[in-house]
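Lecture notes, unit on binding sites. The following record was shown on slide 14. It pairs a sequence with uridine-diphosphate-N-acetylglucosamine.
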Amino acid sequence: MDKLIITGGEVLEGEIRISGAKNAVLPIMAATLLADSPVTIRNIPHLHDVTTTMELLGRMGVHLTLNEKMDIVVDATTIHSLYAPYELVRTMRSSILVLGPMLSRFGRADVSLPGGCAIGSRPVNLHIKGLQAMGAEVEVINGYIRARVGRLKGARLVMDLVTVTGTENLMMAATLAEGTTLIENAAREPEVTDLANCLNCMGAKISGAGTDTIVIEGVERLSGIEYKVLPDRIEAGSYLVAAAITGGHVKLKDTRPDIMDAVLQSLREAGADITVGDDWIELHMHGKRPRAVDVSTAPYPAFPTDMQAQFTALNAVSEGTGTITETVFENRFMHVQEMQRMGAKIQLKGNTAISKGVERLTGAQVMATDLRASASLVLAGLVADGETTIDRIYHIDRGYERIEEKLAQLGANIRRVPG
Ligand code: UD1
């Protein structure tokens, strides 16, 4: 298994390009199942989760090709199996996103239940409840969700809590349903809006995406189009924290500052000087040490849970005391113990991490069990004395495109060692 080795102490400076969003490309790849002709997806990030989704679709008989621009062309007309196996769903929970499209287009789907994961129990009960309300027969047998329907019927779906992939699954299912579906208390994440934009280009009739009420008027068919995926706001946020934590100065290109308000606001509170244009962000610390900040995670547009671990790293070396409260997932502080091993002074009280910033961390051998936690350890390594070795980096490769190359481009001393 590959490792990353970082020698801390470099101040990050320079320019990098931000990749397409993991959490937008995965639902869009699932949405291709709804189209009756090939869909071309542009701005594809090279991530392990994208490869896993290609494998999942490929096993169903979907034809996938990469064109000369590295766009993925997906042709779902050759599909022959409506089945998502445990061994793939287990490694990538977002595989559940094929459930809604398969059921809506073909009237049947057998998808493994994802099971628990490192950051909490993460049930999919709301996905199932929504499909049942649209007339599907859904049962769980031998660890699989078995769903059957003639044609889904539009319904009013009031979501008990805000779920991103739940909203996406039901929105995709509703595109080919008979009649109109209303999703209330819908997730407002920009990736939900991106998916709705893509579906609308394919011929769907969706309005209200980006608000908490989404209206989907069912249509008879969706067709292939070409679509460019939105930039990754979490990748962008992670590199901004990397610059802030090292007292550096970076410019991110091909990004979208308008969907990053909460994160940019917290970085400004930490003392960063931030300027933005339509598709770029520049952060300058003027060599200063950051100030600790207080943040609390919640659904968009509030502070994203996917940036929580990175800000825990920031607070660990900032001036003063800061608190980070996690309200979305029940068990998302595995990085704290590893940071404590690097000399961070963090105290966990329920779902809050209180940290008293130290001047520097110390390098150590660390590992993490989820994607963003692993990334936060890379950030910690950038400001640790000596060498930090991060194990199990396949988690990072699931969601960050060539992280070591992008950080090295900004001057970090980082290398990948094949294991
Ligand atoms: C998505 C993102 C993930 C991000 C998360 C929260 C993708 C591929 N992943 O995950 O990166 O961290 O949103 O922003 O887009 N819940 C239920 N029942 C359900 C569904 C969810 O109880 O049927 C709970 C979850 O356990 C969790 C909360 O709802 O506590 C929010 O989860 P959800 O928004 O569904 O996360 P994901 O869509 O899995």
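Take-home: The chain has 14 helices and 26 strands.
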